[in-house]
Amino acid sequence: MSAISRRDPDQPRTLFRTMIMPRWIALLVLALAIAAAFAALGKWQLERAYRAAPTQQTAPTETVKPLTEIVDTGSLLRTERVGQIVNVEGEFVPGDYLVVTNRVNDGETGYWVSGHLVTKQGDALAVGLGWAASRQKADAVAERLNAQQRSGASVTGRVLSAQFPELDEDAPHEISTMAPAWFVNEWQEMDGVDVYETYVVADTAPEGLTVIHSPPPEQEVEINWLNIFYAIEWVVFAGFAVFLWFRIVKDAWERDIEERELAEAANGASSEKVN
Asked: Would the pTM count as exceeding 0.85?
C-alpha cells in the first residue's frame, strides 16, 4: 500500500494550502458573488451607454408633419429635421416643370422632373416629382405637365436642404441641382413671393416617371460617455473584490509564518536557559 503524504504540522502552510482552507474558500465564494454583481452592474451601464438608432418605423422623420411646422420660407433646414416626411398643399404652376440632370436614383444616373408648387400660403416650393432614365422621357413628361391646366395638389414627401447651383460650362442652360436660387430665375409669377430654401421629394410620381428613391436619413447611435465611465468603474470594483480576497488570504499566510517564527525563537530561547 502506498503511503499518503501528510503535511508536517511543524512546517508552515504554503500560500496555496492556505487558500484552499474552508474558511478562505467560503470567503472566495462571497468575493466572486460580489464581483459578479459588480460585473452585472457594469454590463447594465454599458448597455445604457449605447442608445440604439431608431428603426425606419420609429424614427422621428417618418411621421408626416405639415411643412410649415418644419421650416419657414427663407430659412435653412435644421440638421435634425433633414429628411422629415412632410405634407403640403397648393397648386403646381404650368410652364414651370423643369428637367434636372445628373440625378442618381438607387444607383442609376438619370433625370428628375421638378415642379413649382405655390402653397396655400402663396409661397414657392420646389418639388422633385419623379425620375427617368433618359432625357427624352423626362422632357416628354415635363412637356405634358406644362400643357396641363393649373389645379390643386397635395404633396407628401421628404423635405431636404436646398442644393447650391452648379454651372456646367459645356451646358450652361442645364440644371443639375435642386437649387431654388436657380429656379426662381426660371419660374413664373415670382414677384414678391417668398421662397422655401428647401425642396421636397414626392413619394409618388406622375405617369411615365419612376418614384424617386429617398430613404430615411441614417440614425446615428448615441454614446453616453458617463455611462461608459461608470461601466469601467464597476469592472474595476469587480476585480478589486477578488484582489481583496487574495490580499486577506496572503496576509493571514504571512501572519501565520511570523507567528511560527516567533514561536520557534521563543522555544529556542527557553532551551538555552535550561541548558
From this structure: no
